[in-house]
């Protein structure tokens, strides 16, 4: 079996690493000449919408999936007409446009921050009295790690914010005073079987995820599962999904979802019986889904920046280092480390040491 993946970065690399024990092979399509899933996969090098490369991918792969959701909708449609593509193209269409995504949450009865569609500075000026300050202007498409976003503190910020997003179609969202951010990762198979991971509690800085901790038996687990189940069933979804949520006094508001494996689920590699990467492969191949049971305490720390993490990470007991073999660049995720332990004290100490080691190389 050969799995085709659109995108050949660290997510594709970790999917491939999970797939080798199952006897799977991989082929990625990525415009970056260095992005062959870290050398673990056959690599088609070129644009996502190159018809010849897409035809070659559909021909060579038994099934196609994504690590990158911002591929043009007609690419997903083209591939779907030539081979099996999971998650389905409709999930991509919704997830890659923040307006459709927020409307979709509302249709499902899932709460969100107040929001409005913004296509001009006049729209923004008109929306703000209703939305209130602070608020965030976000481009509808192509944003990640907080890119394409501007914080609005008062009416004086509006013109500069609109200019900073270069006048592309946007939404404006009220700022949510959450007590914490969590995400739920789930996998659904073609027959409709769903498994849920324990919640991840996520710490961001500057719009970039820094730390994700497994929260076993969280009081809001059932609420999060209900939200993500609604989403999976409405979309006829197949594969792994991640739903990002704000906890506001025990009510979970939806922020966004990713139709793919997710950074907040990297702790599942060592911290769960079956990783999110393996369960994604099992789901798209219609194999039995694996147990999502946590294996003790687990948390993940991202390493962001131009420098490789200190080898001291390897010297820490109960820590596991994952280097992505990526060209260093400012603000780029180049590695992560996971702490997994049965001992609460070792866990807390190691997590704090990893946090400091990550902070030392952070250039974002
Ligand atoms: P990702 O890398 O997760 O795809 P993104 O660029 O799509 O990021 P968001 O998830 O929308 O951006 O926002 C990044 C972070 O900014 C959130 O995780 C949260 O910490 C903060 N944030 C975004 N929207 C809001 C909001 N309405 N209220 C409060 N904080 C917010
Ligand atoms: Mg996002
Ligand atoms: Mg996000």
Automatic annotation (TrEMBL):
<dbReference type="GO" id="GO:0005524">
    <property type="term" value="F:ATP binding"/>
</dbReference>
<feature type="binding site">
    <location>
        <position position="138"/>
    </location>
    <ligand>
        <name>ATP</name>
    </ligand>
</feature>
<keyword id="KW-0436">Ligase</keyword>
<dbReference type="Pfam" id="PF22660">
    <property type="entry name" value="RS_preATP-grasp-like"/>
</dbReference>
<dbReference type="InterPro" id="IPR005875">
    <property type="entry name" value="PurK"/>
</dbReference>
<dbReference type="Pfam" id="PF02222">
    <property type="entry name" value="ATP-grasp"/>
</dbReference>
<dbReference type="InterPro" id="IPR040686">
    <property type="entry name" value="PurK_C"/>
</dbReference>
<dbReference type="InterPro" id="IPR016185">
    <property type="entry name" value="PreATP-grasp_dom_sf"/>
</dbReference>
<keyword id="KW-0547">Nucleotide-binding</keyword>
<feature type="binding site">
    <location>
        <position position="204"/>
    </location>
    <ligand>
        <name>ATP</name>
    </ligand>
</feature>
<feature type="binding site">
    <location>
        <position position="98"/>
    </location>
    <ligand>
        <name>ATP</name>
    </ligand>
</feature>
<keyword id="KW-0658">Purine biosynthesis</keyword>
<dbReference type="InterPro" id="IPR013815">
    <property type="entry name" value="ATP_grasp_subdomain_1"/>
</dbReference>
<feature type="binding site">
    <location>
        <position position="181"/>
    </location>
    <ligand>
        <name>ATP</name>
    </ligand>
</feature>
<feature type="binding site">
    <location>
        <begin position="255"/>
        <end position="256"/>
    </location>
    <ligand>
        <name>ATP</name>
    </ligand>
</feature>
<dbReference type="GO" id="GO:0046872">
    <property type="term" value="F:metal ion binding"/>
</dbReference>
<protein>
    <recommendedName>
        <fullName>N5-carboxyaminoimidazole ribonucleotide synthase</fullName>
        <ecNumber>6.3.4.18</ecNumber>
    </recommendedName>
</protein>
<feature type="domain" description="ATP-grasp">
    <location>
        <begin position="102"/>
        <end position="285"/>
    </location>
</feature>
<keyword id="KW-0067">ATP-binding</keyword>
<dbReference type="GO" id="GO:0005829">
    <property type="term" value="C:cytosol"/>
</dbReference>
<dbReference type="GO" id="GO:0004638">
    <property type="term" value="F:phosphoribosylaminoimidazole carboxylase activity"/>
</dbReference>
<feature type="binding site">
    <location>
        <begin position="173"/>
        <end position="176"/>
    </location>
    <ligand>
        <name>ATP</name>
    </ligand>
</feature>
<comment type="pathway">
    <text>Purine metabolism; IMP biosynthesis via de novo pathway; 5-amino-1-(5-phospho-D-ribosyl)imidazole-4-carboxylate from 5-amino-1-(5-phospho-D-ribosyl)imidazole (N5-CAIR route): step 1/2.</text>
</comment>
<comment type="similarity">
    <text>Belongs to the PurK/PurT family.</text>
</comment>
<dbReference type="InterPro" id="IPR011054">
    <property type="entry name" value="Rudment_hybrid_motif"/>
</dbReference>
<comment type="function">
    <text>Catalyzes the ATP-dependent conversion of 5-aminoimidazole ribonucleotide (AIR) and HCO(3)- to N5-carboxyaminoimidazole ribonucleotide (N5-CAIR).</text>
</comment>
<dbReference type="InterPro" id="IPR011761">
    <property type="entry name" value="ATP-grasp"/>
</dbReference>
<dbReference type="GO" id="GO:0034028">
    <property type="term" value="F:5-(carboxyamino)imidazole ribonucleotide synthase activity"/>
</dbReference>
<dbReference type="InterPro" id="IPR003135">
    <property type="entry name" value="ATP-grasp_carboxylate-amine"/>
</dbReference>
<comment type="subunit">
    <text>Homodimer.</text>
</comment>
<dbReference type="GO" id="GO:0006189">
    <property type="term" value="P:'de novo' IMP biosynthetic process"/>
</dbReference>
<comment type="function">
    <text>Catalyzes the ATP-dependent conversion of 5-aminoimidazole ribonucleotide (AIR) and HCO(3)(-) to N5-carboxyaminoimidazole ribonucleotide (N5-CAIR).</text>
</comment>
<dbReference type="Pfam" id="PF17769">
    <property type="entry name" value="PurK_C"/>
</dbReference>
<feature type="binding site">
    <location>
        <begin position="143"/>
        <end position="149"/>
    </location>
    <ligand>
        <name>ATP</name>
    </ligand>
</feature>
<dbReference type="InterPro" id="IPR054350">
    <property type="entry name" value="PurT/PurK_preATP-grasp"/>
</dbReference>
